[in-house]
Amino acid sequence: MKASEIPFKDALKFWTKLRFISFGGPAGQIAIMHPEVVVRQNWVSENQFLRALNFCMLLPGAEAQQLATYIGWRMHSTLGGIPAGTLFVIPSIFVMLFLSYLAVAHIDIPAVAAAFYGIQPVVVAVVIEAVLRIGKKALKHALLYGFAESTPGPLIMVISM
């Protein structure tokens, strides 16, 4: 199906639904997005999807959100890209606002303080996992590994643990 033939309303409905059903970080979100936009709806070809995904992996930031924005843009130009990208992040914004409110207004409650204290190692683990995952894709030569290890980033992560 050509991008110009896709009703904007259908695309908007899909981007809204995707954000509420996606889970598992970028890999899970992309795994949910792929069968819908490539197989069921045929909005983009397999080759277009994979090329866009590879490009998004090179960019800093959230791969799945960038991929959603690109596919939305490809289908309906800027009018499609903006809602696809925005609808993808809106639920996350509300979660962050709620957690920020809890941290500021109720940190004196022991259960809230314990929850925030307990989640710190999880956040560190998620960051380390992301660094390792991206490193496996980006570092193709021993010289690049040496360069990555000589930068302060890994040292800072080790010290912060």
TrEMBL record:
The UniProt entry, under InterPro entries, shows:
Chromate_transpt
Q: Does the keyword Cell division apply?
A: no
Which Gene Ontology MF annotations are present? chromate transmembrane transporter activity
Coiled coil location = none
Where does it live in the cell?
A: Cell membrane
Keyword list, A-Z: Cell membrane, Membrane, Transmembrane, Transmembrane helix
Q: Which residues cross the membrane?
A: 84-103, 109-132
| Predominant localisation class | membrane
- Membrane topology, record value: Multi-pass membrane protein
* Family, per entry: Belongs to the chromate ion transporter (CHR) (TC 2.A.51) family.
Protein name (database record): ChrA2
The scientific name of the source species is Desulforapulum autotrophicum (strain ATCC 43914 / DSM 3382 / VKM B-1955 / HRM2)
